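Researcher: Next sequence.
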Amino acid sequence: MLLYLLSYLAGALTIMSPCILPILPFAFARAGKPFLSHGLPMLAGMTVMFAGMAVLVSVGGQWAVGANDVGRGVALVLLALFGLTLVFPSLADRMTRPLVQLGGRWAQSAHGDSGWRGSLALGAATGLLWAPCAGPILGLVLTGAALKGGGLATGVLLLAYGLGAATSLALALVVGGKVYGAMKRSLGFGEKVRQVLGLVVLAAVAVIALGLDTGVLTKLSAASTNRIEQGLLERFGIARKPASSADGLGDEGANPGFNGATLWLNGAPLTAADLKGKVVLVDFWTYTCINCLRTLPYVKGWADKYKQAGLMVVGVHTPEFAFEKDPTNVRDAVKRLGVTYPVALDNNYAIWKAFNNEYWPAEYLIDAQGRIRAHMFGEGDDAAFEKLIQKVLAENGASAVPGGTVQGMDNGIEAERSGQEQSPETYVGYARAQGFSSTPAVKQDTAETYALGGLQADGWGLEGRWTVGAENARLEQAGGGIAYRFQARDLHLVLGPAAGGKPVRFRVTIDGHAPGADHGVDTDAQGNGVVTDNRLYQLLRLKDGAGDHSFMITFLDPGVEAFAFTFG
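Model: Next structure:
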């Protein structure tokens, strides 16, 4: 219930975002009409259409994206007709072609006194065109839809987001209606005001048609609202990877087991029945997740430390990116990271769904009777959670359970997070991207040459010729790069080599200079590195801690694939 409320609040905050500007003219075109018969239907149409199309595009694949593009084109034509009939009221009467005449009737009814149906249609068209600046809360909702599929819950969350935006616009409409009425009474030229509104509507259509709503306006960073949203998520403990406090033992239900695993590494398949009588720790992870990698030293430490006391650790590798479904990639990562306990590959999210899990990493502690006694989501409460492991082992009759706590890493990719304010995880593929600041706007699944502009805080962009897909961006010509204005101690980027595993050389800079002592484990002091396989690369570790900096990575060879930035 809390997430629905937060989605509503995030939608309401969009009135402060630059991405709301292109649709304001369509809303204010209703300002001079009765709210219940014109403004309310318009906002209802916008909300329902936005929520429906957002669910469809997030889970429906490329065909849904194409259908949405067609719908946007039709909406632009209809709204352009609407604007023209506001400027030239007699235009609709002179339209003679059947299709245009139909559009003219629609547009004229939309600004007529009895046009609630037209207002509803106007709202639906606006909902097709609205591209909100996706903040952390909307990103959380769309990520869940993309990973686990759409459904009633996703639809209601998006509807709540749209209702929040509609509430803000409704208040603006009520105020705007009073201003409009006062202008008509005092100035006596309501027709001129309507014509000005028509010109503004046409200007908004042009802005959207040129892609400026998702290009230039997103450069006017909505960082202030993003920070508010992120603060709300962290305050209520439902950020994408929250650090959940392990506050004691309970009974969270039976171990659902591991049915649906596509492959097992480091041992034979296991079932819940096989594990009865043993204390089990289930670790949900994926090998490019920085939070998982920072938790891994603890999990491996617990597996070794408490093995003789009866603890069995089972890893569940649930992929985030397509290449993480490749058993060879996972097998190589397991070997490279020194994971020796059994690992179930959960490529179809079967185990994830059975546990009703939502986070990477997530730890579930199961007692000898097969009951889930505690969990830990995210990172940061490792010491407290280890005390619970000791307690459950003692309950199971283990003698001489080791005391103390396992210590994390202080260097390398697996080193503990800095604890300082940092930029958010940022995806490069268009399905979950936010903060993109290059021109032109992203061309989905099409090769395009991009140019960098000025970056705001937490903004990023592409330079050179790239093809941006739903999950990643692929460089088509050598010399292209990615820039990010970040705040963190560590900067990581999930990268993959060119087709056929061909290595790709790169060079990084920070604030225009070679990193020197601030280089990461995958770069040298001059900023040089090579992408050899699909994994997370640590490119920077700032010796003086987190700060506000500009990062640039330039690829000397074509074909590299970039997936996501993470920070520490």
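Model: The chain has 16 helices and 17 strands. The longest strand covers residues 460-468.
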